[in-house]
């Protein structure tokens, strides 16, 4: 049985997709779940050339997807740093607000239009 978020927070017994990550040895269960469903305190609004319209980014998961799928460059120190930190934050192994800072640095490095 796959867990829903309510079961994960209550630590009910079930087979969780999170159990496959090494994070389970280092971070409390509730922290990993929270990292997957919580949003940043302030969104990041950017305009990417490959996508129509603006992109409102509220979570490390969305930032990681944009970095890996739609980013105009796939190199650079800030890009690599942001991709790693956003992915780790999505998995609950890195502070998600610090992942946001790394994402903003990648925006500056790639010279992407940041609206907010």
Describe this structure in words.
The chain has 116 residues and is mainly alpha-helical. The chain has 2 domains: 1-37, no CATH class; 40-116, no CATH class. It is 47% helix and 9% strand. It has 5 helices and 3 strands, in the order ααββαααβ. A 3-stranded antiparallel sheet has the order 2-1-3. The longest helix has 15 residues, at 77-91. The protein is globular and about 40 Å long. The N and C termini lie far apart (41 Å).
List keywords for this structure.
single chain, disordered N terminus, 2 domains, globular, mainly alpha, three-stranded antiparallel β-sheet, 116 residues
* Tally of separate helices: 5
Average per-residue pLDDT, rounded, comes to 78
Uncertain ranges:
1-24
- Report Rg: 15 Å
Kindly state the number of beta strands.
3
Number of domains: 2
Order of helices and strands: HHEEHHHE
Question: Helix share of residues?
Answer: 40-55%
Principal-axes geometry comes out as: globular
Give the strand order of the largest sheet, numbering strands 1, 2, ... along the chain: 2-1-3
The main sheet comes to: 3 strands, antiparallel
Proportion of residues in β-strands:
5-15%
N- to C-terminal distance: 41 Å
Helix/strand/pairing category: mainly alpha
């Amino acid at each position: 049985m796959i867990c829903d978020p309510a079961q994960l927070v209550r630590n009910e017994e079930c087979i969780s997709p999170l159990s496959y990550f090494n994070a389970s040895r280092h971070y409390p269960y509730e922290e990993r779940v929270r990292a997957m469903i919580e949003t940043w305190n302030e969104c990041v609004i950017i305009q990417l050339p490959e996508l129509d319209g603006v992109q409102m980014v509220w979570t490390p998961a969305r930032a990681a997807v944009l970095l890996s799928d739609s980013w105009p460059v796939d190199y650079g120190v800030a890009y690599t740093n942001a991709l790693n930190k956003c992915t780790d934050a999505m998995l609950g192994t890195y502070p998600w607000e610090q992942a946001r800072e790394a994402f903003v640095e990648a925006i500056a490095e790639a010279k992407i239009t940041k609206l907010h």
